[in-house]
Amino acid sequence: MNKKSAQKRFGHLPPKYKFSLNPYPEMRFTSCSHCGAKTGQRKLPLLIHVDPQHLIALNYTCRYCSRCNMLFGHKHEIEYILAEMFKRADPGVVGNRYFIIGTVEKKAWREGMQAPKQLEDALDFISDFKSFEEIRMTMGGWFKEGITPPVMEPPKSTDWVKR
User: Would you say residue 141 lies in a domain?
Assistant: First the structure.
């Protein structure tokens, strides 16, 4: 069995984008971390699963590299939006694990805002990510030859925490 057929997919649409999550609030990407090309913006609904059983389609503006077909999201912005949304709807969920699954077709997202769809019907409009990664940066500065710079630990979340 090849690797592609072994992968489980959530949505029924083929994967469209790769996704990188930036956990460093003070760092932004105006160029792609993979190919160096300038990034643009793309606003699309991200499908996010929040434990225990919440699926949210969040219309979010990502940085986008057309060369790599890669979306870049900012963890602190997404967590802030989720925290504000759940503080009103279900405060006990704030701080739970979450996973960004993929994207939802814009037309289906708009229709779902008017009349929510059942999960079985929504799967036809969901596209998983081709790949998902959380970005890690190395520390800047001078290092002796042969020494690898240490990886900077991202700061702890201030919004998406249990209170």
Answer: no
Closest by CA position to 129, among listed 69, 67, 60: 69
CA distance 31 to 23: 16
Does 18 reside within a domain?
Answer: yes
- The answer to whether residue 61 sits within a structural domain is yes
- Please give the Cα distance from 90 to 3 (Å, whole number): 39
pLDDT tens digits along 41-84 = 999 999 999 999 899 999 999 999 999 999 999 999 999 999 99
> Residue 58: inside a domain, yes or no?
yes
**What's the whole-model pTM score?**
0.86
Buried-exposed string 91-101: b where 16+ CB fall within 10 A, e elsewhere: eebbbeebebb
The domain in which residue 16 lies consists of 9-134
β-sheet bridge partners, residue 140:
none
Domain count, the chain: 1
Task: Indicate the Cα dihedral angle 61, 65, 68, 70, nearest 10°.
Answer: -20
